[in-house]
Amino acid sequence: YSGRRRHLRKRRAGATLVGAAWVWRHVLVRKTMRRAATRIAAAWRGYCVRLNQQHLHKCASKLRRAFQTFRASQHVSDAVLEMLECRRQLWEEHATYFAVRIQRAF
User: What is the DSSP letter of 46?
Assistant: First the structure.
C-alpha cells in the first residue's frame, strides 16, 4: 500500500513538473511573440512617420515654389507696367514736341 502511495505521489509530482515545464515554455513563446509584435509595430510606425514627414516636406516645397512663382510673376507684372508707363510718357513727350511745332506754325 505504501509503495502504491509513493508511486502516486511521484506520478503527481511528475505531472506537476511536466505541467510547469509546459507553462514555462508557453509563457516563453508568448513573450517572444509579444516582443516580435512590438518590434514589427515599431518598425511600421517608424515607416509611417517617415512617410508622413516626406509628404509634409513635399507639400511645403510645393507651397514654397508656388509662392516664389507668384512673387516672381508679381515682380514681372510690376516691371511690365512700369515699362508701359515709361513708354506712354515717352510717346506723350514725342507727340507733344510735334504738336507744339505744328501749333507754332499756325
Answer: H
